[in-house]
Amino acid sequence: MNPFRIGFGYDVHQLKTGEEFWLGGIKLEHEKGAVGHSDADVLIHVICDAILGAANMRDIGYHFSDKDPKFKGIDSKILLKEVMELIRAEGYEIGNLDTTICLQVPKVNPHIPGMKKCLAGVMNLAEHDISIKATTTEWLGFVGREEGISAYCVALIYKV
Ligand SMILES: Nc1ccn([C@@H]2O[C@H](COP(=O)(O)O)[C@@H](O)[C@H]2O)c(=O)n1
Ligand SMILES: C[C@@]1(CO)OP(=O)(O)OP(=O)(O)OC[C@H]1O
C-alpha cells in the first residue's frame, strides 16, 4: 500500500468589528476579528481538516462539534494538538503542509514567521514543513468586502 496520503481543507469565518482575531495560533491586532464557536482560527481549522482528510478520519466538526458548549471559545491550538494525537495514534506522521489565507486586510506576511513558529511547536514539526501564504481577493467577494476570511490547506501524511 502506498504510504503517502494527501488531504485538503477549506474553511470560512465571518469578520466582525470588536472580535478577537486569532490566526495561525497568534492574536493579530485589527479592528475586526473572526467569529465562530471556537476562537475561529481559520488557518488552524483548515490544517486540522487537511490532516484528518488525509487520514480519512472525518473533519474538525465531527470530532469537536460546534453545538458542544465544551468547545465554546476554545483555543484552536488545543484542537490541533488533539488532531495530531488522533492521527499519530493511527501511525501517521506529517510530511508537509501548504496553506493559503484569503484576507483583504491586514497584510499577514509580517506575522507568518510567528505563526510558523507557534504551529511547529503545537504540532511538534519542523517550521520548514509548514508553509503559510496569503492573498487578497483584489477587493472581490466576501473576502474583498472584508466580511470574511477563508483559508485552504493541503497536507501530505505518511505511515511511519
Ligand atoms: N492579507 C494578505 C494578503 C496578501 N499578502 C501578501 O501580499 C501579496 C500580494 O497580494 P495579492 O492579493 O495582491 O496577490 C501576496 O502574495 C502576499 O505575499 C499578505 O501579506 N496579507
Ligand atoms: C471549531 C468548531 C468547534 O468549536 O467551531 P467553529 O469555531 O465554529 O469552527 P468551524 O470551522 O465553523 O467548525 C468546526 C467546529 O467544530
Automatic annotation (TrEMBL):
UniProt record similarity statement: Belongs to the IspF family.
Query: Which pathway does this chain act in?
Result: Isoprenoid biosynthesis; isopentenyl diphosphate biosynthesis via DXP pathway; isopentenyl diphosphate from 1-deoxy-D-xylulose 5-phosphate: step 4/6
Do you know which Pfam families this protein is assigned to? YgbB
| GO molecular-function term, one example from the UniProt record | 2-C-methyl-D-erythritol 2,4-cyclodiphosphate synthase activity
Q: For binding a divalent metal cation, which residues are annotated in this chain's numbering?
A: D11, H13, H45
Which cofactor does this sequence's record say it needs?
A: a divalent metal cation
Q: Binding residues for 4-CDP-2-C-methyl-D-erythritol 2-phosphate, per the UniProt record?
A: 11-13, 37-38, 59-61, 64-68, 135-138, 142, 145
Job of this protein: Involved in the biosynthesis of isopentenyl diphosphate (IPP) and dimethylallyl diphosphate (DMAPP), two major building blocks of isoprenoid compounds. Catalyzes the conversion of 4-diphosphocytidyl-2-C-methyl-D-erythritol 2-phosphate (CDP-ME2P) to 2-C-methyl-D-erythritol 2,4-cyclodiphosphate (ME-CPP) with a corresponding release of cytidine 5-monophosphate (CMP).
> Which key words are in the record?
Isoprene biosynthesis, Lyase, Metal-binding
The UniProt catalytic activity note for this protein reads:
4-CDP-2-C-methyl-D-erythritol 2-phosphate = 2-C-methyl-D-erythritol 2,4-cyclic diphosphate + CMP
Q: Which InterPro entries match?
A: MECDP_synthase, MECDP_synthase_sf
Domain of life (superkingdom): Bacteria
User: GO biological process: any one?
Assistant: isopentenyl diphosphate biosynthetic process, methylerythritol 4-phosphate pathway
- State the name under which the record lists this protein: 2-C-methyl-D-erythritol 2,4-cyclodiphosphate synthase
Task: Supply the EC number(s).
Answer: 4.6.1.12
Which source organism? Algoriphagus machipongonensis
* Quaternary state and interactors: Homotrimer.
